[in-house]
Amino acid sequence: MSDAETVSLERDLKFTHADFRRVRELAYQHAGIVLGEAKNHMVYARLAKRLRTLGLYRFSDYLDELVSAPQSAEWQVFVNALTTNLTAFFREPHHFDMLAEHAARHARPGQAYRVWSAASSSGEEAYSAAMVLSETLAEHRHEVWASDIDTQMLETAARGVYPLEKIEGLPPTRRQRFFLKGVGRQHGLTRVKGELAARVHFFQINLVAADWPAMGRYDAIFCRNVMIYFDKPTQAAILERLAAHLAPDGLLFLGHSENIQHLTQAFVPVGRTSYRLAGPTGS
Ligand SMILES: C[S@@+](CC[C@H](N)C(=O)[O-])C[C@H]1O[C@@H](n2cnc3c(N)ncnc32)[C@H](O)[C@@H]1O
Q1: What is the distance in A from the centroid of ligand 1 to the CA of 152?
Q2: How far apart, in Å, are the Cα atoms of 50 and each of 14, 28, 38, 63, 282?
Q3: Which phi-psi region, left, alpha or beta, contains residue 209 (left: φ > 0; alpha: ψ -120 to 50)?
Q4: Cα(280) to centroid(ligand 1), Å
Q5: What is the pLDDT of residue 280?
Q6: Closest to 35 measured CA to CA, from 254, 260, 236, 228
Q7: Residues annotated as catalytic (active site), given as ranges
Q8: pLDDT tens profile 89-122
Q9: Tell me: the pLDDT tens digits for 145-180?
Q10: Exposure string (b/e) for 188-198, b if CB count within 10 Å is 16 or more?
Q11: 241 neighbors 109 (Cβ within 8 angstroms)
């Protein structure tokens, strides 16, 4: 199909292969996200809504405007539209068991035990870690820092309000201790209790940006189900940077399909998709 042809006759907005190629390049440049050929329909569906809101009919017009305004807030809207945010409370639960065991052994007197959820999406992963730390460490100080590139997700996460179904799989003790059930207009919703929410701090980080804010080291880092969107060199570079933010005896958790063998010498496996730093401090 030539660049001039639209991809599907059913589409009401003009989206050529050249437009798709541009979207792919821009997503890669700004977020490190690799959109394969098969993502054509996904890209159309996600950005078409935005074009309609802006009263635009051609993707080329939207992309021209975007590129002509490097500082425009529209870049964030563009990136937000292209991220995939699927998550759940206690997703891949074995990591939370390991976290509990690690926190019990490694929490140091006088020092907060710190966790970083590095692609936290709408916050479920971060709140899950915070629940585990509340249960395990009780009065011992602990903090969960949670970041994502997607500002819309960060807003949802900070609000801490979810459809009730999202916590249905949690044991009643956790539901009662950490969540409030919505009534009246909030019926069908649940809110993370203030005591738990106060321990979780959300902020924006683009993992592929040249600069990350000063963050210190963490006892555990969750960087799960985000590496899959990046190419190998990007994954390798991020892993090196994560290593610099992990405490010497800390744990790194990756997603179930993220294999870092051959990508880095910085980590050695300690369990299912769980790693510690290689070298003398970690051994
Ligand atoms: C599938 S979700 C994973 C959520 C959670 N970690 C989990 O495993 O359930 C992937 C998240 O990565 C975020 N993301 C994508 N590219 C990113 C980047 N360059 N920097 C930071 N976060 C990014 C997306 O916004 C999305 O919320």
Answers
A1: 12
A2: 13, 19, 21, 12, 47
A3: beta
A4: 31
A5: 58
A6: 228
A7: 46, 148
A8: 999 999 999 999 999 999 998 999 999 999 999 9
A9: 999 999 999 999 999 999 999 999 999 999 999 999
A10: eebbbeeebbe
A11: no
Bridge partner residues of 115 (DSSP): 144, 220
The rounded Å distance from CA 147 to ligand 1 centre is 9
Rounded CA separation 110/108 (Å): 6
Q: Which residues of 125-146 are buried (b: 16+ CB within 10 A; e: fewer)?
A: bbbbbbbbbbebbeebebbbbb
Cα–Cα distance measured from residue 211 to residue 167, given in angstroms and rounded to the nearest whole number = 36
Instruction: Please tell me the distance from the alpha carbon of residue 202 to that of residue 52, in angstroms, as a whole number.
Output: 31
- Residue with the two structure tokens 């996600």: 46
Report the percentage of the chain scoring pLDDT > 70: 95
Domains and CATH numbers, the chain: 17-82 (1.10.155.10), 94-277 (3.40.50.150)
Strand partners, 277: 267
Residues with CB under 6 A from ligand 1: 31-33, 83-87, 91, 119, 121, 125, 148-150, 153, 205-208, 224-226, 229, 255
